Amino acid sequence: MTDINVDDFFKDAARALTSLYGVFPRRHTIFVDDIYQTEEPDEFGLHSERYQACFGTLLWLGEEGYLRFEDTISNEAIDQAVLTGRTFTLLSSPAEAVTKHEDANLPDLVRLEHATHIHQIKTALKDRSSMELRRAMIALMGRMERQPG
Fold first, then answer.
1. How confident is the model over 7-27, as pLDDT tens digits?
2. What is the C-alpha separation between 18 and 36, in angstroms, rounded?
3. Residues 6 or more apart from 125 whose CB is under 8 A from it?
4. How many CA atoms does the CB half-sphere of 95 hold within 13 Å?
5. How far is CA 39 from the centre of its chain?
6. What's the distance, Cα to Cα, between the start and end of the chain in Å?
7. Alpha-carbon distances, residue 113 vs 11, 93, 94, 123 (angstroms)
8. DSSP H stretches of helix in 64-129
9. Nearest-5° angle of CA 70, CA 72, CA 78?
10. What is the tens place of the pLDDT at every residue in 86-122?
11. Which of 3, 56, 118, 146 has its CA 20 to 30 A from that of 46?
């Protein structure tokens, strides 16, 4: 049994990275509402722990060098965010282990695209597969750790 907070972290991180990949190299504001869900703060102005964990994921991605951002907007967004060069390169590169069997009849360019980290992550998000998303994110993070910084 896995810790639900780790699965939530992988999902939030994957959504943030795919969002920034989709607009790269432009800077983009990422709201927690776009990654997790829209949520009104309670009567004390506080969001739920899950909402705060999503915001924490965005901050962690910045601290660990996956993305850069200029500022935060309260505890609800990171402003002017962009992928780092290392992250963009890793997302665009082939994963070491392709998780799904690819059709040999597909054109080489399509098979190459399907083998990339970003495709693996997008497919796992689309399929709502926590296990595949965990594998894809751990593969990406493992490669990031081995890259010179």
1. 999 999 999 999 999 999 999
2. 14
3. 11, 14, 15, 18, 133
4. 23
5. 21
6. 34
7. 21, 9, 8, 12
8. 85-92, 108-114, 117-127
9. 75
10. 999 999 998 876 545 556 676 666 667 778 999 999 9
11. 3
Please give the structure tokens belonging to residue 124.
């796992």
pTM of the predicted model, to two decimals? 0.87
In angstroms, rounded to a whole number, what is the distance separating the alpha carbons of residues 7 and 127? 14
Please report, as a single letter, which amino acid is at residue 105: N
Does pLDDT of 33 surpass 70?
A: yes
Cβ(29)–Cβ(80) under 8 Å? Answer: yes
H or E stretch at 77: strand 77-83
DSSP assignments along 12-70, one per residue: HHHHHHHHHHHHTTS-EEEEHHHHS------TTSPPPHHHHHHHHHHHHHHHTTSEE-S
Q: Which amino acid is at 26?
A: R
Amino acid at 108: D
Q: Count the Cβ atoms, other than its own, within 10 Å of residue 37.
A: 11
| Eight-class DSSP state of 146 | H
